[in-house]
Design a protein that fits this description.
The complex is a heterodimer. Chain A has two domains: 4-233, P-loop containing nucleotide triphosphate hydrolases (Rossmann fold, 3-Layer(aba) Sandwich), CATH 3.40.50.300; 240-365, OB fold (Dihydrolipoamide Acetyltransferase, E2P). Chain A is an alpha+beta fold. Chain A is elongated, with a radius of gyration of 25 Å. Chain A has helices spanning 42-50, 92-102, 107-120, 136-148, 166-183, 194-200, 218-223, 228-233, 274-280; strands at 4-13, 16-26, 31-35, 57-62, 65-66, 77-80, 154-158, 186-191, 203-208, 211-216, 240-249, 252-259, 262-268, 284-289, 294-296, 304-314, 319-325, 328-334, 344-349, 355-358, 364-365. In chain B, helix 1 (2-41) crosses helix 13 (256-290), helix 4 packs parallel to helix 7 and helix 10 (207-223) runs antiparallel to helix 13 (256-290). Chain B has two domains: 2-66, no CATH class; 82-290, MetI-like fold. By secondary structure, chain B is an all-alpha fold. Chain B is built from 13 helices and no strands. The chains are: A alpha+beta, B mainly alpha.
């Protein structure tokens, strides 16, 4: 159990720079998720923490100790891989014991560690099987068992659920979360699945092109994304990004959005600092509204937008409604059976949740 | 309705008869030389000269086999093939083990411990597969001379090991590339080093390709004639060279029965290897294709 500090770390292959001055710092017991599309450098960063890739520049510290030049085995880490990476010719028991054998632990101690891990992951009955005789979920469990017996300072997970089917993925996700709660070990977890990031993390680092776009608690990343990229990547369906113009009238900030065949809609009541309000008054901005922050207007709630509904997609618990707003397609999440395709709907917006972005730099305006 | 079924059934049967018929004829055609060899080796010389080649022996005798094994004259010595059979074993066993072992380590390095220029090294090694025997004979003879290994079995072991590395490296490299890199990474994190990973993780997983490499190398080296005849002389010759000397050097009547027996003795080890390990051979050759 320990802290992890990634301090201005860079990685380049010849002239290709894959990581540009990444700095992330997490505390003991944190669950850090590196989230991003393939090619964003998240797996490279994980491999650098593990010691499987060299560090071009900067420092990585585990429990305060610089590990840049330590080999993987001396970093006191354990890793779970996407393909599980179980040794195919060894039984489950031998797989779990392999690392302890190399470290020269006596047989009695190894047996005890295997038993504890097997009980924790409910796989005692699988110990004498070969990996080829196990299902995907069972293999994943063995891989975790192999990591647990190490009792490392740091657990590293490289897209561990990507090879599982949807149902099993959800089960294993819960299992990983339970494991983290029970062991309290610091975890770094790489994934491209934003749901995994939201559900598991205590800290999320959203990455793109070798740069951390946003590092914060999952809820903060969701509510106040640092830029348009993060806003679109986290959440499903994604946050609506609607072009509009900012109008400032005294202390009231409002965004004016064009609506096809209707007068422009004005959404007012956003909180914005005085400086930002002055700077962006009358300028073009991007208005970020999450689908669930629309609702069917009841009574005379303000502000409201009236739109022509294009498509209605019921999902069961709620219905996704698609319409045109500000020249882009916008999705709203409404309670079931409240809107029909081809009809007009009057929607109100929860302005306290609306986020405003600069139209050019696409970063959030506060 | 029933007539349609029975006519379809009849044409199906006719097809079967045709297929099996042609297969039997072709098999017989290919087995004919072996048949001639076996029956001839079991006949006495008188019977061969008086009768037909193909017919069964009137009197089965293993005299020719005994002669080929222990008494036939090669040059001035009349010890049969036995000493040369032993020579071939002394050559083939170390050469197969060495070339397979080096090929395995090469393949392991070229896939799991890549270094700058490793693809170039692999390309150059592959070049060795296409190098004809004749091209290396002269420089190899000079090298063996410098190493003072000319005309010796260790010299022949060296030649076959060096020549075989290209092929064995290709086999192992193509096999190991199907084993995910994550496996070596996991072992590294578990604390295993270069050789620990090789012996504990990679080799146990590569039995099929080890068998392929051994069969291939055994067949190549055991059956080799050119290197044998070029780099050895007299008592240190491998069996292929000795067989040639028995067959081509005759005094008096040509001893067909002894020639045939000798040829079969020379061929038996490779046959045994194929029969014993053949199913691994097919499995190993196709392993790369089906594993993900």
């Amino acid at each position: 159990m320990s802290t992890l500090e990634i301090d201005r770390v860079r990685k380049s292959y010849a002239s290709l720079e894959v990581l540009k001055e990444v700095s992330i710092s997490i505390g003991t017991g944190d669950f850090l998720v590196l989230l991003g599309p393939s090619g964003c450098g998240k797996s490279t960063l994980l491999n650098m923490i593990a010691g499987l890739e060299t560090i071009t520049g900067g420092e990585i510290r585990i429990a305060g100790k610089v590990v840049n030049n330590l080999s993987p085995k001396d970093r006191d880490i354990a890793m779970v891989f996407q393909s599980y990476a179980l040794y195919p010719t060894m039984t489950v028991r031998q797989n779990i014991e392999f690392g302890m054998k190399i470290r020269g632990l006596p047989a009695a101690e190894r047996d005890k560690a295997v038993k504890i891990a097997a009980d924790l992951l409910q796989m005692s009955h699988l110990l004498d099987r070969k990996p080829s005789q196990l299902s995907g979920g069972q293999r994943q469990r063995v891989a975790m068992g192999r990591a647990i017996v190490r009792q490392p300072k740091l657990f590293l997970f490289d897209e561990p659920l990507s090879n599982l089917d949807a149902k099993l993925r959800v089960d294993m996700r819960t299992e990983i979360k339970r494991l983290h709660a029970r062991l309290g070990t610091t975890i770094v977890y790489v994934t491209h699945d934003q749901i995994e990031a939201m559900t598991l993390a205590t800290r999320v680092a959203v990455m793109k092109d070798g740069v951390v776009q946003h590092l914060d608690e999952p809820q903060a990343v969701y509510d106040r994304p640092a830029n348009v990229y993060v806003a679109r990547f986290v959440g499903s369906p994604a946050m609506n990004i609607i072009p509009g113009v900012l109008e400032v009238n005294g202390s009231t900030v409002s965004a004016v959005i064009n609506v096809a065949n209707r007068p422009a809609a004005s959404i007012s009541g956003m909180s914005l600092s005085g400086d930002a309000a002055r700077k962006y008054a009358g300028k073009k901005v991007l208005v970020g509204i999450r689908p669930e922050n629309f609702s069917i207007t009841t009574g005379n709630a303000r502000p409201t937008v009236s739109v022509d509904i294009d498509v209605v997609e019921p999902t069961g618990p709620d219905t996704l409604v698609v319409f045109q707003l500000g020249g882009v397609e916008v999705t709203a999440r409404l309670p079931p059976k409240q809107a029909n395709a081809g009809q007009e709907a009057i929607l109100s917006v929860d302005t306290s949740k609306v986020v405003i972005f600069d139209a050019d730099t696409e970063t959030r305006i506060d | 309705m029933s007539t349609e079924i029975s006519s379809a059934h009849r044409s199906h049967q006719l097809g079967r008869i045709f297929i099996y018929g042609s297969l039997i004829v072709l098999a017989a055609f290919y087995l004919m030389p072996l048949w001639v060899m076996i029956v001839t080796s079991l006949k006495s010389l008188d019977e061969i000269y008086s009768g037909s080649f193909i017919g069964l022996p009137k009197l089965i005798t293993i005299e020719a086999w005994e002669k080929a094994w222990g008494q036939a004259c090669i040059g001035t010595a009349c010890d049969g093939l036995r000493p040369y059979f032993v020579n071939s074993l002394l050559m083939v066993i170390p050469a197969v083990v060495l070339s397979t072992g080096i090929g395995a380590i090469n393949g392991y390095i070229l896939t799991k411990w890549r270094f700058p220029g490793s693809n170039l090294v692999f390309g150059l090694l592959l070049f060795g597969c296409f190098l004809p025997f004749q091209a290396v004979i002269l420089p190899m003879a000079q090298l063996l001379g410098k190493l003072r290994l000319s005309g010796t079995i260790p010299g022949l072991v060296l030649v076959h090991t060096v020549y075989g590395i290209s092929f064995t490296t290709l086999f192992f490299r193509n096999y190991f590339i199907t084993i995910p890199d994550e496996l070596t990474r996991a072992a590294q994190i578990d604390g295993a080093g270069f050789f620990r990973i090789f012996f504990s993780v990679m080799l146990p997983a590569s039995l099929p390709i080890i068998v392929v490499s051994c069969i291939w190398q055994f067949t190549q080296i055991w059956n080799d004639f050119l290197f044998g005849v070029s780099f050895t002389a007299g008592q240190s010759s491998p069996i292929t060279v000795a067989l040639n000397n028995i067959v081509n050097v005759t005094m008096g009547r040509k001893q067909y029965n002894v020639d045939m027996a000798a040829a079969m003795i020379a061929a038996i080890p490779t046959l045994i290897v194929y029969v014993v390990a053949g199913r691994y051979f097919v499995r190993g050759l196709t392993a790369g294709a089906v594993k993900g």
